[in-house]
Amino acid sequence: MAPRRISSSLFRSLSASSASASFLLSRGQTPSRGRGIYRFITATALEEPITPPVQISYTQHFINGKFVDAASGKIFPAYDPRTGEVIAHVAEGDTEDVNRAVAAACKAFDEGPWPKMSAYERSLIMLRFADLVDKHRDELAALESWNSGKPYEQSAKSELPSFARLFRYYAGWTDKIHGLTVPADSNHYVQTLHEPIGVAGQIIPWNFALIMLAWKVGPALACGNTIVLKSAEQTPLTALHAAKLFQEAGLLPGVMNVVSCYGPSAGAALASHMNVDKLAFTGSTETGKIILELAAKSNLKSVTLELGGKSPFIVCEDADVDKAVELAHHALFFNQGQSCCAGSRTYVHERVYDEFIEKAKARALRRVVGDPFKKGVEQGPQIDSDQFEKVLRYIRSGVESNATLECGGQRFGSKGYFIQPTVFSNVQDDMLIAQDEIFGPVQSILKFKNIDEVIRRSNNTRYGLAAGIFTKNVDTANTLSRALRVGTVWVNCFDVFDAAIPFGGYKMSGIGREKGIYSLNNYLQVKAVVTPLKNPAWL
């Protein structure tokens, strides 16, 4: 994806939102049974953006323990999605930069002290890093929100504490990774060794840049690997700042390298590199397929994929509707709807459907949209003009499909990439808004009659990342949680991401698991060592 020019991006954004409004008017459809959208329109004037309390200090690649320019000398812009304006220019990596980073990681693994360091020593470095994250929490949170548009309170109070916790969790695993002694039928002593896999290539997304870094870097370091990490081109700033903190914590040169670049060039180079032993990717299913193909065509490196989702959130007939509405609202609108596991198919039992619709609409209308650095704001802008326009296209598709637009559906404000919280009712399974991953603040509410029906419909998707169940009946919860073909089921809760809870998907939502003990297997090789026993006293 080529760097965007601000003027054309804003022009396309304005055109998309204007087209959306014109489309609704041309159909004569009011998106809220006669009211609701006008509350958004009368509140569209955003104040002058708040200046983030942080300086951007690191914009070069981090390779072999040093910040360096791109081999080509190229740079690309990083944007503020509140305004669409450039906030920094970052070194633009390509194949040569990836080659330099992989060479540094190979040398650190093959010749350096990192893999030979005791597990306890590795854990101390990871713990020092977590302490530095706590110390620099405000800076990291401000960078994360400035570059991605998510609310600062979310970054500072939720994501940064989780980020540090994940590294402390994996630091605790470093000296608990070991093999087994295996009994053999013959006179042989057999042991298994769990060895680091080597150089791990890691490609992280833009929606949770720091959290995804922790999910991948944490277990890789705990197992003794070295790393080449590619950050998302939309959000390169926090990974570079984290690299500096790793250096301060004592991480040795070459152990962790960060390259900022576009996916089709440097991302593809990393996926197909012959000296990368392991690849981990989080992103879209379409890109995941390409990553898997590149890995297979190169050196058949092992691949972990955490991909897209279209998660059902099932509200049963016995639900407390007020609580269900609030939880379903959070499940969808959290992080501007830019979450792979968002509860983007809200299935509501027919007995409570009408009540749920009215209350879900009212909650969406109360959602506070604005500058993510302003206290009390729940929703900031979408990440960029491409995502902004994509979401508006899906909204238009929902209207064209005759779903009922209860509220929202348009741009919020006249600057940046803000979208009104949007709610559709009367959604059918064959509509695009019920099938595709929208990745935006669009809630699609569907009606169901019984448990067997909602199980069948929930599973009738190419995705299988997560699901939510809201019920007072433990038998219903058990039936649904075992029948749904997904990697995570949240019962009467949603988006609970403890460091020890594994996360990953069924079907086209990915391969493998991240977090918890299961993630360690991604970064280890198992070796069997067999030695003859002479006159053993026992077998």
Automatic annotation (TrEMBL):
GO terms for molecular function: aldehyde dehydrogenase (NAD+) activity. It catalyses: an aldehyde + NAD(+) + H2O = a carboxylate + NADH + 2 H(+). GO terms for cellular component: mitochondrial matrix. Residues 67-529 form the Aldehyde dehydrogenase domain. The active site is at E306. It is found in: Mitochondrion matrix. InterPro entries: Ald_DH/histidinol_DH (IPR016161), Ald_DH_C (IPR016163), Ald_DH_CS_CYS (IPR016160), Ald_DH_CS_GLU (IPR029510), Ald_DH_N (IPR016162), Aldehyde_DH_dom (IPR015590). It is an enzyme of class 1 (oxidoreductase). Transmembrane segments: none annotated. Keywords: NAD, Oxidoreductase. CDD domains: ALDH_F2BC. One of its GO terms (biological process) is carboxylic acid metabolic process. Its EC number is 1.2.1.3. It comes from the Eukaryota. Belongs to the aldehyde dehydrogenase family. Possesses activity on acetaldehyde and glycolaldehyde in vitro. This is aldehyde dehydrogenase (NAD(+)). It comes from Populus euphratica. The lineage of its organism: Eukaryota, Viridiplantae, Streptophyta, Embryophyta, Tracheophyta.
